[in-house]
Write a structure and sequence with these properties.
This protein has 196 residues and is an alpha+beta fold. The protein is built from six helices and six strands. The longest helix has 19 residues. Its EC number is 3.2.1.147.
């Protein structure tokens, strides 16, 4: 990357893109652009998806959570691209609290805390066991913020923003966990599934 060009294995010609697109025949107008991206993703990663997926979908979450897939993806990148430096720029968990949105409910974000625990543990295993070259990790996000698709409905932050009370910032359970994690490091024994 220091030359300003992607490695040859990442370069895809226009013809290769056309061939791939034509290989996926979509016969229904119900598919969207996102559907075709998902299908292409399945094609690319199907070689290492050979087991039953042990994900869970929290009641307030929109997407299934699969932390073991995070480790698998990091290892795949290491093996496929000669162990490049990897920086995780955004990793987070959003919750739509809906009618229950309040300070008390918002700061008791055990699902986000569990999500972070599992993903940090998976990343630690990728680094220590699989020898993946992860050099940076950033949580999305520090504060509840405006999301383009959701507005202020989805809360991703480690700090709850009380939009009804002068934008007061209150540390959530996940924020306390992450603060402790940064000061003490990975402790797999602290992962408690009963908090979900």
């Amino acid at each position: 990357m220091s030359t300003g060009h992607a490695p040859g294995s990442l370069v895809v010609t226009k013809r290769e893109k056309q061939d791939r697109s034509q290989a996926i025949e979509i016969k229904s107008n119900k598919f969207t652009e996102h559907s075709s991206i998902y299908i292409r993703w399945l094609e690319m990663f199907s070689s290492f998806i050979r087991y039953k997926v042990d994900y869970y979908t929290p009641s307030t979450g929109k997407l299934p959570v699969f932390a073991r897939g995070f480790r698998s993806l990091l290892k795949y990148i290491k093996d496929k691209y000669a162990n490049p430096e990897i920086m995780i720029m955004e990793n987070g968990y959003g919750e739509d609290l809906g009618e229950t949105d309040s300070v008390a409910v918002g700061i008791a974000d055990h699902n986000r805390k569990y999500y972070l625990q599992r993903h940090l543990l998976s990343m630690n295993e990728a680094i220590c066991i699989d020898k993946v070259n992860v050099t940076g990790y950033f949580i999305w996000s520090l504060l509840d913020n405006f999301e383009w698709n959701e507005g202020y409905k989805s809360r991703f932050g480690l700090y709850y923003i009380d939009f009804k009370n002068n934008l007061t910032r209150i540390e959530k359970e996940s924020g306390k966990y992450y603060r402790d994690f940064l000061s003490q490091g990975v402790r797999p024994s602290m992962i408690k599934r009963d908090e979900l």
